[in-house]
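Input (structure):
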């Protein structure tokens, strides 16, 4: 017996127990509503999606070509449409996740209005967006299953049992739109207790994977801006512990922690940790400080601090705001130590924030990490903050120059110019860009590729194109030709926006509840029928 029929029978038996009081309840309708609401709570989602991530991580360890991907989404509808699109084009959501970007929460979802990525937005906006994303994904399940149920009814009405069995098989093997979300908790929005409390809210909303960065929470900066300040390892590890405790308390034993290091671009630290024995983490962190030797008291002024490094008195260099400087050129070494330490103390995945997309640069750090932790793997930010066109054209230029190829026809500093768009160099750079994720997964240990804020840019671009035409000479043609006609031609379900928003679901429910007395919206006068 199919799973669908088993569910129907379960409700039929339950109805019988109530001796006629539930005779107006249709077991098939109850079964359908139950199947359309597979996940009862956010914790159900977190446990389910954590299992997906763990299996995907194991598959990647066996075969690096099985990397995973996601796009950042700032609204539930955007996440829903992304997963509907993936199912339409690829037939499965396997290996595709959602990313929740702290940058986009700050810029798009804060009640204070648009804010920079500096942890100034209200922290409750983060779990609220997780819950919203999963509400829309669950609604996508309900909508698609609702269409299948209608197909099943139509097949039964026609007496076509072959078609009915085919639809029932689709129902039994339905793949949910609910996928893992990698959720950005920034630097924890406070101390380790604050991190724990926020992590709990995020997990309860459905997050199976939390990304935590090693910046100072009250001085946090976007990963691609200047002025980043890191914390000592002990402080960061306490927050990793806080997130793990939150997962365990809520019964999400497979919860995934992504430890992000911003050390490559961070030249400052807020405090100097206390070392208790030679060579411990505190002393390793301190060894990267920019210091000057102290030979006598004349080398000091009021308020200076002196520390002992390798048997010598040294004065850490401070800037005007009291922060301490790291020595230039120590970024990669600090990244490697950060990553090894995080993996050895409870993190599952790494995130190395870089200043450019360069497979060789990433691999050079990952290989050093893997010398100590062989199964180390990364989540990597394919960031819109990079000028991808310029970066890859310059990488090809540099490679050609190193090979001795004549590059005199190109100005390296101006390679973004449109005059180079149809050149051999530009074509090869585009091919390198096309292969970046595959190459980096194979050569640089990247398990998951994401774009943090792509839908921020797509919303701006599509709106600009529509506004240019609609408010110009094209008028309504700009919308019809470039939006609605394209929706129809490309088979976007959203062209029937009433259905996407739940109109047909509501009609089905009204019929369940009120039978033939139901007042439904989907009759012959519904203009949505124009898109049949």
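Output (sequence):
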């Amino acid at each position: 017996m199919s799973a669908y029929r088993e569910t129907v029978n379960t409700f039929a038996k339950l109805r019988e127990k109530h001796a006629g009081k539930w005779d107006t309840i249709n077991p098939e309708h109850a079964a359908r509503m139950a199947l359309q609401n597979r996940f009862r709570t956010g914790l159900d989602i977190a446990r389910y999606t954590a299992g997906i991530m763990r299996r995907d991580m194991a598959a990647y360890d066996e075969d690096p070509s099985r990397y995973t991907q996601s796009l950042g989404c700032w609204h539930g509808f955007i996440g829903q449409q992304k997963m509907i699109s993936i199912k339409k084009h690829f037939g499965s959501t396997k290996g595709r996740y959602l990313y929740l970007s702290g940058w986009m929460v700050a810029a798009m979802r804060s009640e204070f209005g648009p804010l920079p990525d500096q942890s100034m937005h209200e922290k409750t906006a983060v779990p609220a967006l997780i819950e919203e994303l999963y509400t829309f994904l669950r609604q996508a399940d309900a909508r698609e299953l609702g269409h299948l149920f209608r197909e099943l009814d139509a097949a039964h009405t026609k007496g076509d049992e072959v078609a009915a069995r085919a639809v029932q098989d689709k129902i039994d093997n339905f793949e949910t739109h609910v996928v893992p979300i990698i959720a950005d908790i920034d630097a924890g929005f406070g101390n380790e207790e604050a991190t724990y409390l926020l992590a709990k809210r995020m997990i309860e909303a459905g997050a199976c994977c939390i990304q935590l960065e090693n910046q100072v929470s009250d001085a946090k900066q976007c990963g691609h801006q200047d002025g980043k300040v890191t914390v000592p390892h002990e402080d960061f590890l306490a927050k990793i512990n806080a997130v793990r405790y939150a997962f365990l308390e809520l019964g999400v034993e497979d919860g995934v922690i992504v430890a992000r290091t911003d050390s490559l671009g961070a030249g400052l630290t807020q405090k100097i940790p206390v070392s208790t024995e030679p060579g411990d983490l505190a002393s390793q962190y301190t060894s990267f400080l920019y210091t000057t030797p102290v030979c006598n008291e004349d080398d000091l002024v009021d308020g200076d601090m002196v520390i002992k490094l390798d048997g010598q008195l040294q004065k850490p260099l401070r800037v005007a705001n009291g922060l301490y400087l790291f020595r230039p050129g120590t970024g990669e070494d600090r990244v490697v130590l950060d990553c090894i330490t995080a993996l050895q103390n409870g993190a599952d995945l790494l995130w190395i924030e870089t200043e450019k997309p360069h497979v060789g640069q990433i691999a050079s750090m990952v290989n050093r990490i893997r010398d100590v932790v062989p199964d180390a793997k990364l989540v990597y930010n394919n960031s819109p903050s990079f000028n991808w066109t310029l970066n890859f054209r310059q990488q090809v230029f540099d490679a050609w120059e190193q090979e001795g190829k004549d590059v005199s026809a190109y100005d390296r500093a101006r390679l973004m110019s449109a005059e180079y768009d149809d050149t051999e160099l530009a074509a090869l750079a585009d091919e390198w860009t096309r292969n970046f994720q595959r190459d980096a997964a194979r050569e640089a240990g990247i398990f998951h590729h994401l774009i943090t804020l792509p839908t921020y840019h797509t919303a701006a671009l599509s709106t600009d194109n529509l506004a240019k035409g609609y408010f110009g000479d094209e008028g309504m043609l700009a919308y019809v030709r470039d939006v609605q006609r394209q929706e129809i031609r490309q088979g976007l379900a959203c062209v029937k926006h009433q259905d996407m928003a739940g109109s047909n679901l509501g009609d089905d429910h009204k019929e369940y509840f009120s039978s033939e007395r139901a007042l439904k919206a989907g009759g012959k006068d519904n203009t949505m029928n124009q898109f049949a």
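Notes: Residues 77 and 526 are 23 Å apart (CA to CA). The longest strand covers residues 256-261.
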